[in-house]
Amino acid sequence: MSDTRQGTMSDTRDGTMSDTRDGTMSDTPKIRLRGVRKSFGSKVVLDGVDLDIRAGHSMVILGGSGSGKSVTLKCVLGLIPPDSGLIEIDGRDVASLSRMEREAVNDRIGMLFQNGALFDSLPVWENVCFKLLAQGRLSRSKARDKAAEVLAQVGLAPSVGDLSPSELSGGMQKRVGLARAIAAEPDIIFFDEPTTGLDPIMGAVIDGLIVDVVKRLGATAVSITHDMASARRIGDDAAMIHKGQIIWRGGAHSLGETGNAMVDQFARGEREGPIQMELRR
Amino acid sequence: MAPAILNRILDPVAAIGRAVIGLLRGTGAIALFAAEAISHLVRPPFYGRLFLKAFIEIAWFSLPVVALTALFTGMVLALQSYTGFARFNAEGAVANVVVLSITRELGPVLAGLMVAGRIGAAFAAEIGTMRVTDQIDALSTLSTNPMKYLVAPRLLAGTLALPLLVIVADTLGVMGGWLIGTQQLGFGSGAYLKATFDFLQLWDVLSGLIKAAVFGFIITLMGCWSGYHSGGGAQGVGRATTSAVVASSILILAVDYVLTALLFSR
Fold first, then answer.
1. Taking chain B, what is the end-to-end CA distance rounded to the nearest angstrom?
2. Terminus of chain A with fewer CB atoms < 10 Å: N or C?
3. What is the pLDDT of residue A22?
């Protein structure tokens, strides 16, 4: 396993250096993880995650349930402190930042949660403009107009703004969650299993919206998913995490034909292969 | 073999040790949680709207249950103390006993227990649900400190609302005693009220209000703490709700003793 990791690290480094092809991007990856470890009690969830995410690109992190995808994301967001390892955003070690600086970094990050995580005590429009209102960047009356504008970008009518989140269908909740994530125009957006729990058509619609907003904002996107169709649609790059380590990195288009037995098994959803599900009898 | 026997002998000691360490760790964690929440009360931004919402929830919507509890307690007190004092011809002390018991002890403690059931449970369930549905994490990603947004306004509201409720409880408790005293026990209305207020001192009422403020803080703190650290799923939220009510009820009774000892030690 350590061989695989070393291989991944050098691949990553090479890949990063050659990313300056269009001359507009710096050598520094937008997000850089090195040796990130996290355990909960005796359970090791992240076992030295190394990953570079290029600015302006869309990275998809694949992995089965319990492989450490969500924890990786939460570590980058600062919601969970890693036990050890380095996390850099724009070349700055986030562990060394003061609380204010960390808040400033988080200010530029948007996040779409798996189940939407909409505030059910607030109407949709307040959910969408929550950050802008909290920071006093908009008055309540202007926030209503802004919410209608952002809701339109995710294909929802302005009247949805007056509804409560509990009145929305799963697909609409995802769209409102997306609207909330992009309302403050962040330059990094995280998507936690954006299509989970949706029918395939709604999944494709959400993916389309994600691609559109990421392109329009010029943002760096990081999605975690185990939905292959979604991964191919929204990702430029892809990485696979297994047992707390990145075991592969490559183009999202090549998923299913990567030559890596584990990734290909996962991408094709095959029962037999190097990845054995731990089932208790 | 010897170590096995030794282990068996030491097992209870180890268990006690673990429990003590767990208790100390928990107490320390709650104290830090409270200190952080208080620190947010003096640093902007302030969420006045959320404070007002929590204040109305606690003060206004707890009014019926607190009022009824106090009224019936005053009535029962008058009846019981009359029966007791009649045995040595001291029926005249009924009004005094009612007002002192209500203002010093029963008003704050019973209002506290009632509010612990209503508000402690409601806050733990609401914040616990927010925890398990990632809404608390979502707050963090939206540049909003969850402690400042969820906990600080509720703590302040609880601390300020409970004394107001206790003023109502004191009034209705005394009214309950007066009702029974005049309607059933044969006291004159004026004489009962005179006996009530002749011996009542401002400190009797104030000490009850101080207790109420502390109980309000404890109830909201335990409700927020339990919800904030709620485990996963519906079961986790259920456990958080139960522990909020149980912990705040026990703490109210324990702290009541400590406060009584402190406030009336002179």
1. 59
2. C
3. 42
A243 within a domain of the structure (yes/no)? yes
Q: Which residue's structure tokens are 């203002």?
A: B103
Encode burial over B222-232: b for 16+ CB neighbours within 10 A, e otherwise.
bbbbbbbbbee
Burial annotation A222-236 (CB, 10 A radius, 16+ → b, else e): bbbbbbbebbbbbbe
SS3 sequence of B171-239: HHHHHHHHHHHHHCCCCCHHHHHHHHHHCCCHHHHHHHHHHHHHHHHHHHHHHHHHHHCCCCHHHHHHH
Q: How many Å apart are CA A57 and CA A214, to the nearest integer? A: 9
Which tokens hold the place of A229? 């169709």
In chain A, % of residues over pLDDT 70:
89
CATH number of the domain to which A263 belongs: 3.40.50.300
Contacts of A113 in chain B (CB under 8 A): 134, 137-138
Q: Determine, yes or no, domain membership for A193.
A: yes
Whether residue A71 lies inside any domain: the answer is yes
Which of B126, B143, B144, B150 best probes binding to A when mutated, by most A CB atoms within 10 angstroms?
A: B143
Strand A220-225 and strand A188-192: the pairing is: parallel
Q: Give the CA dihedral A130, A177, A59, A90, nearest 10 degrees.
A: 0
Quick one: angle between helices B152-183 and B189-198, nearest 10?
140
Q: How many domains does chain A divide into?
A: 1
pLDDT reported for residue A7: 37
A245 strand-pairing partners: A242
Where in the sequence is the domain holding A246, given as residue range(s)?
2-108+186-268
Q: What tens digit of pLDDT does each residue of A63-107 get? A: 887 788 888 988 998 888 899 999 999 888 888 888 888 888 888
Contacts of B45 in chain A (CB under 8 A): 134, 136
Q: In chain B, positions 37-56, which contact chain A (CB-CB < 8 Å)?
A: 45
Q: A132: distance to nearest CA of chain B, Å?
A: 9
pLDDT in tens, A216-269: 888 999 999 888 888 888 888 999 898 888 888 888 887 777 777 788 887 777
Backbone dihedral angles phi then psi of residue A36, each to the nearest 5 degrees:
-75, 125
Q: pLDDT band at residue B170, thresholds of 50, 70 and 90?
A: very high
Alpha-carbon separation of residue B102 from B174, B192, B216, B263 (angstroms) = 7, 15, 17, 16
Q: Is residue A129 part of a domain?
A: no
Residue A162 reports pLDDT greater than 70:
yes
| Dihedral angle sign, alpha carbons of residues B12, B13, B14, B18 | positive
pLDDT of residue B93: 87
Burial annotation A79-108 (CB, 10 A radius, 16+ → b, else e): bbebeebebbbbeeebeebeeeeeeebbeb
